[in-house]
Q: What sequence folds into this?
């Protein structure tokens, strides 16, 4: 009886599951030990932790807005729009000139909100136009090609956009002007949180809600969801799928443009032609983290990634006695991604794409 | 779907604006000005000028192509579209004048050059053909004239009788290619014919006018008489047996040529060939993972790094050294480490599919790079300071201290990799991989152990990457973590897809184009990536199946030309449960 | 005779949805059995439970006397179960011969290392495998189409190729998911004959899902009817046709009447 | 008057020719059925009419207007709706949203509401489940939804591709009753069906396709009596 | 299939045969290259022909040939400002001579060595494969030089670097990590100098007793902060934190929070743009850093830095090359005339001096024979550069003789450490665009 049971168990024993389980347990132990050690040494004050969380949320809301573009496009075309980070860069890099001009001319000081809105408008327009051009030139002709082909044109487009803007605007690092109206801090749970971080977070949430209602309630939004399920049947409904796809790219572009301005408010420095690449990667990671193709998932994934990056190296790694933890931040972010995907192969909110269909 | 004939004026306007737009883009991005002093022929044709007229040429070409049935109409129209294409450039001149050079005219308060750095006085000089703002009217007139002429030239490619246009195209193309690659060509000329010959052909990196004329003439003649097609028809006329014998001889000759190549092309080109060979080796490995097993891996650089670091740490004579092996003894360890890490990294991603796999592997690549860089692991592998003092390989007393020797190492490595790949492709394992690529679930239902099959793909693929990394480290003599960036993964992936996924000759061609070409285009510095990007897009648009696709895929893509074609078996799975 | 396949109380849920509920079935060796039921009744899910793609939450599946549920699909295939799919799922970009060779996978032994060095054993095995693949190709009537890419084959040929691929693993039990879907009555009749031959020639036990009642009633010895994941009836064709629950939930009066007529005439 | 006139269309999948000169006509108010073996080109014909495929040669006229210059979504505006093979409902949208999508081409809110009532009267089950996500419907309900969705476009010509496929026999009868009912409301129907017996029982006329060509066309009654049809498609020896 | 195997095997065998056969011949090949072996003038010489007896060969310039020099600098990518800075200085040095040397035109080839090992090596093979090149200016980044050194040295070239600062480059003892090969010269100061200056400034001048450092994972920054921290500890200070960020990071709050945990007196971050400005700007948000003095290094000595960093940059310090004097002012005037504005980085003076030293050395060793052919001995050229002492350059005194740093002997180091200073960023730089800032400390 026991032998039979053992045989049966051994026959079903899977090294993969065993190791993955082991891996999960090890990861949890490491995290717990790290957190425990860090917190018991009390190196940081509570206020410092809160500061880090909010900085992470603000950063995360920028990831989230870019991630929405990835996820929307992925939902409809099942392709990774690798050049989306560059769409974000295009808007931010263009609007910086307007911003600096307005700062010099005193307009920014006179009517800051109008000024910011005008930057937003410019960045959104530029990013949207770039996104639409991208679709038209690099993706549309390849809509029925094998899956990896548009990935390569996307990579190519990413290079082209980077070096086009480098050629246009030069190699100098630019900065957004500081907006006096957004300076200052707000007291949150006893910590002084910079106002601008809250503004960015709230603005991103508002945009997200608008997008959600657009996709969920409007005719265009429903058409987007239809197209994401089946192109041919959508055409039979009278949906012009080209137009829907362009709409999707435009929406993603607009959100990326907005993200560029928020980034400029929250962290004015470092505006240059390569600024889109890493945020693009991170946003892509965030989209996968949340479950690619899922609007809500992308947003939550973005915020989560921002907080993970900001908080966790100090919280976990430092407690393990690792030197120069912030250097490992990206590695840590990706490790968390791997961990989460091992627990949930479809991402946090993703549908069970990975479920076997037989 | 039907091509509705457009009215002529629309064609003229469209292609004119498109061509002029391209020209203006090249101006704005700085290419025109950056190469305005890079002479191609003597001291009268610069690369910048060539760039400027390219767009206009395209305008003429497009116009003429749409109207080619009526030659007179086409000629006139392309002339007009040339004029149209000069409009964006004229606009550029005026913008530069009003917002940069003479802001006082409109009282502009913003110097547009702060934004568009290339709106410079030099650009105006170039665009007005040297007339500048002082003779603006004349300059613009000249520009329009030039545009019209160049547009006509573009139209000529289409409208001339086939032979003439072939001759013209091949003549112009050859002169341009030799002029642009003067550096490379002179390296070869130096090795073959000595310094004296260079003085005849090139003057200060540009072709001498005489040389240009001669090259043009030769190329024109070969184009005109279509020597290429003639040889081909002659070749097809040869009986089959003789053909295969000739082919064999040609193959042997090619191989012999391959062997002496580094000594013909000199140091620098050998280095370029070495790099190409290295990528071939690496991409053959990636090809197994992506091309055969269908697992999208964006972090292949990790294995390259493992190989390089293994080689570095095992052989270095510096303080990080462990083992003190020589190159040949360390190579098996590189491969072993590759295999082991292929298994380790393959493990957690076994259950992931498609794009989830892509981002996780990309993450692995980054994790490995960051860890290599970290202060945390620095005591073991050098951190930011890298691993120095990696000795050159030593073979029977010959020290492989130049790319010319290392070239043979990569050739040997590449041959082994190709051999293993071919053998595996035609084996049971190869079929397992391809079945898995086609349909993972069904493959499993056929009794294929997915875990084993996937891990083998990762491990074997990784071993090639690690081998390449080891060879690379030995050539470089020192390695730094910054070298192992995402770009290598991307480049490797692009090579196999541009080459034609799953095809071994495709990998070689892909590596030559995507790795070799940029080496030769070093002169273009920051514009290299721009060109690389444009190249990727254009190649994929023109040949989505890759340059030399695997036979089966080629068949598939050709039957799948119709946009709505859906193979029966790929229709969505019904949800009967 | 002992049943070769036996399921006891198999239950499979997806979230809140119960796809298969307490399903029992017994398949006799060398028999032809069928599972029928309306669309979405859980028939294919049940097949997936047998082949290991889904692990049922409850119940046991016995094959050849030992329990198989929880084993991975490849092990189940190796133990002697092969299947085809409702929507043909061939390896579209591989040739017909390659498809069959993949099907032979569980029977081949040579390792990948031996294929790099092309050892004698490996070469012999490959040659035999190729011969066998060609034989199967002929057996299903696709002589000469071996080098065609699977997705370029006509529909009927794809169906047959899929069966050849399933046969290549030399299964004891063959699961056919709607083998006559998309066929006209004439082709269906041919397929019926073919399925019967498979059983008679090769001694394979066959379990099929089918909507075409003429086929089901014509060749099955045992039929289980599923509705909403539950077994509502079981028996030979006659019993099923007469079962009022089946008529109400699945067959409908008209169809049942028509079938009855037909079986009677067939019987004569 | 003929609502649809197809003249000699040739459709290709890449290099493979699927239709080799199909010509057929559908009169206003008729039910016309296409029968034939799998791969004969029935679905291809429907996809060509609906614009998902484009004929390489030949013309398709809908009430005198050439359809071949329009793309699929424009053809919907011309009054042609199609229920694709396998139903093709949007599984992640709710039943109501699926029906909304059917009316995507229209803006006349009042008439849409009326059509919705009509659909609900034809398929009361859908009304009960209008908030439910369509993917959780049973096979029969999905077929109802697909048909109802096509009706929401208020088509003059309805193309039905294998409506009985995969349905329990008990539902097949229902389905054809519904088809008849829709036709009675004045919608012209072109029906592709595997189940030739049922198809010919509701249809006025029928065409028989073999490997991309029409080999036979006649009234449904005559086809039922045709020996070849009986043997190949009706299963009567 | 068997045929294929046979073919591949035979190819392999063939390949190895050729490899063995070719190899010895090939090693001889370079030896044949120097024109010394073949008597340069076969036609009846009017006078006695020049005989090149240089140990590593001569460069032979026919009467019409230009004097060919090259540079290997980083002119693309994120560090291109370094390359632009050096290229400009080289061009000015060439202009200063009217574009001619030895009565010939100067031909100048600029190669891109990027800022990486592989880039350096590729550029080196390119330069080394052109036998007409006499000397090279380069590289900007130490990693590139480490990989290029061997190729350059074995090709007999002399290379003078304007901005390599890694100490290992000039140490010829491999056991100590040295990678020196003959032919390499460095005009700028090594990290030994700059790190020490920064450490001394922080400890002595600012009175700091606790220090934190941040590097960005570049070999340069890592090394420099290490030297600085060591010097600081030698003086008696305490290093509370040594952290790192990554190139491309934008959010520095986390690392700054780690720094702030100990509230050090000074924070040294010898990194580049844009990460540097992020640290400066975001440090104002972090509680615990209010009294910490920020110190950057030459990587941030760029005119866009104050504007990008914003008001928080006021009162911070930058260590870096400091050159002054009338000659330098003259140089800046030439720059402004030729390119407009000021050089984008701080190493132009070294590039300028290096080019001039190379030209002087060429002039010193060139021999022209009767038929107008000029010979430049490669070893002689190296020796001549090496012999440069008490050269009064724009960057101060240059002396290329061997030097001693503690236990290490360095070869080819020409800098004397004179040209270093600490700059203070004030409101003038941040608000009014003044550049370069005031120097407040020199060693």
A:
């Amino acid at each position: 009886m026991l032998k039979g049971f053992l045989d049966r168990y051994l026959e079903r024993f899977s090294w993969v599951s065993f190791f993955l389980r082991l891996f999960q347990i090890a990861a949890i132990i490491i995290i717990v030990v790290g957190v425990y050690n860090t917190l018991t040494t009390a190196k940081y004050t509570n206020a410092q932790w809160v500061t880090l969380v909010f900085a992470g949320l603000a950063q995360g809301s920028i990831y989230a807005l870019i991630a929405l573009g990835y996820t929307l496009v992925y939902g409809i075309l099942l392709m990774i729009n690798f050049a989306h980070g560059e769409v974000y860069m295009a808007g931010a890099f263009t609007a910086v000139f307007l911003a600096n001009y307005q700062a010099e001319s005193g307009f920014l000081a006179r009517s800051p909100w109008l000024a910011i809105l005008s930057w937003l408008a410019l960045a959104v327009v530029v990013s949207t136009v770039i996104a639409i051009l991208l679709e038209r030139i690099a993706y549309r002709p390849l809509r029925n090609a094998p899956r990896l082909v548009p990935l390569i044109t996307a990579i190519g487009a990413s290079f082209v956009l980077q070096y086009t803007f480098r050629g246009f605007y030069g190699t100098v690092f630019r900065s957004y002007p500081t907006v006096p109206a957004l300076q200052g801090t707000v007291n949150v749970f006893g910590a002084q949180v910079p106002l601008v971080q809250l503004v960015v977070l709230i603005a991103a949430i508002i945009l997200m809600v608008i997008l959600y209602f657009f996709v969920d309630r409007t005719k265009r939004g429903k058409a987007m969801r239809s197209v994401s399920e089946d192109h041919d049947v959508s055409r039979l409904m009278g949906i012009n799928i080209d137009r829907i796809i362009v709409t999707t790219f435009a929406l993603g572009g607009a959100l990326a443009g907005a993200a560029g301005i928020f980034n400029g408010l929250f962290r004015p420095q470092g505006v240059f032609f390569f600024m889109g690449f890493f945020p693009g990667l991170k946003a892509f990671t965030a989209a996968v983290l949340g479950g690619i193709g899922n609007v809500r998932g992308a947003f939550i994934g973005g915020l989560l990634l921002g907080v993970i990056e900001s908080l966790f190296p100090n919280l976990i790694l430092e407690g393990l006695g690792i030197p120069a933890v912030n250097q490992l931040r990206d590695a840590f972010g990706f490790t968390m991604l791997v961990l989460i995907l091992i627990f949930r192969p479809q991402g946090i909110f993703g549908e069970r794409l990975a479920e076997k269909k037989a | 779907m039907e091509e509705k004939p457009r009215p002529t004026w629309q064609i003229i306007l469209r292609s004119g604006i498109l061509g002029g737009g391209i020209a203006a883009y090249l101006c704005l991005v700085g290419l025109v000005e950056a190469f305005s002093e890079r002479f191609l022929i003597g001291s009268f044709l610069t690369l910048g000028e060539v760039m400027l007229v390219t767009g206009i040429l395209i305008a003429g070409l497009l116009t003429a192509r749409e109207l080619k049935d009526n030659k007179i109409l086409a000629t006139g129209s392309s002339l007009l579209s040339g004029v149209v294409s000069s409009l964006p450039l004229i606009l550029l001149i005026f913008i530069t004048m009003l917002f940069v050079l003479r802001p006082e005219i409109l009282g502009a308060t913003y110097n547009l050059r702060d934004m568009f750095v290339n709106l410079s006085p030099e650009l105006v000089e170039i665009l007005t053909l040297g007339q500048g703002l002082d003779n603006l009217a004349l300059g613009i007139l000249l520009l329009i004239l030039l545009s019209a002429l160049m547009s006509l030239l573009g139209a000529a490619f289409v409208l001339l009788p086939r032979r003439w246009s072939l001759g013209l195209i091949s003549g112009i193309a050859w002169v341009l290619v030799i002029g642009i690659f003067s550096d490379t060509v002179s390296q070869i000329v130096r090795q073959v014919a000595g310094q004296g010959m260079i003085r005849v052909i090139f003057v200060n990196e540009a072709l001498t006018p005489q040389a240009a004329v001669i090259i043009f003439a030769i190329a024109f003649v070969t184009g005109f008489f279509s020597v290429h097609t003639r040889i081909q028809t002659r070749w097809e006329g040869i009986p089959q047996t003789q053909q295969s014998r000739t082919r064999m001889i040609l193959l042997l000759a090619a191989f012999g040529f391959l062997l002496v190549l580094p000594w013909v092309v000199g140091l620098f080109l050998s280095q370029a060939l070495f790099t190409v060979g290295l990528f071939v080796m690496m991409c053959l490995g990636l090809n197994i993972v992506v091309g055969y097993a269908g697992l999208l891996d964006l972090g292949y650089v990790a294995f390259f790094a493992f190989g390089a670091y293994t080689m570095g740490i095992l052989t270095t004579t510096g303080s990080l050294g462990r083992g003190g092996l020589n190159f040949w003894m360390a190579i098996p360890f590189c491969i072993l480490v590759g295999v082991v890490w292929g298994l380790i990294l393959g493990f957690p991603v076994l259950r992931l599919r498609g794009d989830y796999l892509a981002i996780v592997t990309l993450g692995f690549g980054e994790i490995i790079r960051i860890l290599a860089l970290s202060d945390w692991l620095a005591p073991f592998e050098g951190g930011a300071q890298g691993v120095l003092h990696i000795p050159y390989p030593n073979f029977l007393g010959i020290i492989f201290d130049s790319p010319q020797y290392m070239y043979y190492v990569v050739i040997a490595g590449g041959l082994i990799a190709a051999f293993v790949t071919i053998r595996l492709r035609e084996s049971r394992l190869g079929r397992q991989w391809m079945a898995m690529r086609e349909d993972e679930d069904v493959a499993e239902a056929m009794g294929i152990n997915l875990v084993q099959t996937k891990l083998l793909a990762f491990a074997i693929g990784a071993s090639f990457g690690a081998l390449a990394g080891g060879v690379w480290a030995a050539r470089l003599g020192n390695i730094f973590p910054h070298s192992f960036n995402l770009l290598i993964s991307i480049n490797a992936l692009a090579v196999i897809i541009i080459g034609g996924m799953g095809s071994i000759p495709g990998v070689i061609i892909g590596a030559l184009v995507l790795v070799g070409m940029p080496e030769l285009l070093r002169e273009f510095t920051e514009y290299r990536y721009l060109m690389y990007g444009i190249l990727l897009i254009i190649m994929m648009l023109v040949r989505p199946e890759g340059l030399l696709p695997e036979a089966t895929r080629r068949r598939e893509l050709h039957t799948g030309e119709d946009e709505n074609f859906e193979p029966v078996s790929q229709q969505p799975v019904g949800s009967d449960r | 005779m002992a049943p070769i396949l036996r399921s006891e109380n198999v239950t499979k849920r997806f979230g809140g949805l119960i796809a298969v509920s307490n399903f029992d079935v017994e398949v006799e060796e060398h028999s032809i059995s069928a599972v029928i039921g309306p669309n979405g009744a859980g028939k294919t899910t049940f097949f997936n439970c047998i082949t290991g793609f889904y692990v049922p939450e409850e119940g046991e599946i016995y094959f050849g006397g030992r329990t198989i549920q929880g084993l991975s699909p490849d092990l189940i295939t190796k133990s002697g179960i092969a299947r085809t799919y409702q929507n043909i799922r061939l390896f579209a970009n591989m040739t017909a011969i390659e498809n069959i060779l993949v099907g032979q996978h569980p029977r081949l032994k040579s390792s990948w290392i031996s294929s790099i060095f092309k050892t004698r054993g490996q070469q012999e095995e490959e040659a035999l495998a190729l011969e066998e693949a060609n034989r199967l190709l002929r057996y299903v009537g696709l002589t000469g189409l071996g080098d065609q890419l699977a997705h370029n084959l006509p529909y009927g040929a794809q169906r047959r190729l899929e069966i050849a691929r399933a046969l290549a693993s030399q299964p004891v039990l063959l699961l056919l998911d709607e083998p006559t879907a998309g066929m006209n009555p004439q082709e269906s009749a041919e397929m019926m004959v073919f399925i019967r031959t498979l059983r008679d020639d090769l001694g394979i036990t066959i379990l099929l899902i089918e909507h075409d009642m003429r086929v089901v009633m014509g060749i099955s010895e045992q039929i289980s009817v599923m509705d909403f994941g539950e077994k509502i009836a079981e028996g030979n064709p006659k019993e099923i046709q007469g079962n009022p629950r089946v008529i109400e939930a699945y067959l409908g009066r008209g169809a049942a009447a028509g079938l009855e007529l037909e079986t009677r005439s067939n019987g004569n | 008057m003929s609502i649809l006139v197809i003249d000699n269309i040739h459709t290709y999948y890449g290099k493979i020719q699927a239709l080799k000169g199909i010509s057929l006509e559908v009169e206003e108010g008729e039910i016309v059925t296409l029968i034939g073996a799998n791969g004969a080109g029935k679905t291809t014909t429907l996809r060509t009419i609906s614009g998902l495929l484009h004929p390489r040669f030949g013309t398709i006229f809908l009430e005198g207007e050439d359809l071949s210059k329009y793309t699929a979504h424009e053809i919907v505006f011309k009054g042609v709706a199609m229920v694709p093979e396998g139903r093709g409902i949007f599984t992640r949208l709710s039943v109501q949203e699926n029906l909304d999508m059917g009316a995507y081409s229209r803006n006349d809110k009042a008439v849409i509401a009326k059509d919705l009532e009509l659909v609900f009267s034809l398929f009361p089950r859908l009304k009960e489940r209008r908030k439910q996500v369509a993917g959780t419907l049973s096979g029969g309900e999905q077929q109802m939804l697909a048909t109802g969705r096509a009706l929401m476009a208020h088509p003059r010509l309805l193309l039905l591709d294998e409506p009985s496929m995969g349905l329990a026999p008990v539902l097949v009868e229902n389905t054809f009753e519904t088809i008849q009912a829709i036709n009675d409301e004045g919608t012209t129907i072109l029906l592709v069906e595997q189940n030739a017996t049922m198809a010919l029982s509701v249809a006025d006329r029928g065409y028989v396709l073999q490997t991309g060509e029409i080999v036979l066309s006649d009234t449904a009654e005559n086809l039922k009596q045709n020996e070849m049809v009986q043997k190949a498609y009706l299963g009567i020896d | 299939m068997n045929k294929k195997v046979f073919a591949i095997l035979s190819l392999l065998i063939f390949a190895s045969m050729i490899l063995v056969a070719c190899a010895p011949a090939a090693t001889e090949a370079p030896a044949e290259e120097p024109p010394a072996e073949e008597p340069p003038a076969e036609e009846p010489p009017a006078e006695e022909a020049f005989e090149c007896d240089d140990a590593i060969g001569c460069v032979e310039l026919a009467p019409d040939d230009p004097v060919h020099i090259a540079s290997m600098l980083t002119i693309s990518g994120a560090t291109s400002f370094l390359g632009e800075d050096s290229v400009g200085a080289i061009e000015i040095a060439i202009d200063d001579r009217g574009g001619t040397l030895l009565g010939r035109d100067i031909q100048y080839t600029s190669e891109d060595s990027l800022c990486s090992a592989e880039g350096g090596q590729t550029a080196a093979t390119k330069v080394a494969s052109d036998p007409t090149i006499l000397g090279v200016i380069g590289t900007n980044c130490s990693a590139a030089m480490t990989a290029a050194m061997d190729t350059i040295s074995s090709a007999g070239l002399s290379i003078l670097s304007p901005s390599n600062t890694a100490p290992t480059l000039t140490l010829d003892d491999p056991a100590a990590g040295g990678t020196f090969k003959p032919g390499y010269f460095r005009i700028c100061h090594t990290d030994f100098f700059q790190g020490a200056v920064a450490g001394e400034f922080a400890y002595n001048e600012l009175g700091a007793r606790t220090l934190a450092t941040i590097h960005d994972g570049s070999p340069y920054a890592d090394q420099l902060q290490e030297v600085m921290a060591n010097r600081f500890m030698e003086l008696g200070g305490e290093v509370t934190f040594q952290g790192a960020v990554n190139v491309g990071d934008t959010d520095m709050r986390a690392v700054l929070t780690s720094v702030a945990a100990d509230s050090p007196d000074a924070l040294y971050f010898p990194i580049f743009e844009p990460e540097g400005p992020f640290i400066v700007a975001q440090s104002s948000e972090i509680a615990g850093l209010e009294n910490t003095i920020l110190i950057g290094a030459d990587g941030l000595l760029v005119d866009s830095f104050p504007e990008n960093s914003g008001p928080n940059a006021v009162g911070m310090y930058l260590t870096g090359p400091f050159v002054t004097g009338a000659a330098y002012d003259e140089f800046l005037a030439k720059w402004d005339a030729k390119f407009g504005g000021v050089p984008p980085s701080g190493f132009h003076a070294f590039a300028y001096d290096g080019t001039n030293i190379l030209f002087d050395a060429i002039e010193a060793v060139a021999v022209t024979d009767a038929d107008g052919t000029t010979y430049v001995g490669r070893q002689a050229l190296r020796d001549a550069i090496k012999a440069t002492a008490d050269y009064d350059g724009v960057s101060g005194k240059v002396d290329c003789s061997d030097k001693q740093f503690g236990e290490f002997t360095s070869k080819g180091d020409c800098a004397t450490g004179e040209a270093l200073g600490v700059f203070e960023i004030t409101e003038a730089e941040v608000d009014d665009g003044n550049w370069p800032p005031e120097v407040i400390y020199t060693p």
About this structure: Chain C is about 45% helix and 25% strand. The radius of gyration of chain C is 19 Å. The first strand of chain C starts at residue 3 and ends at 14.
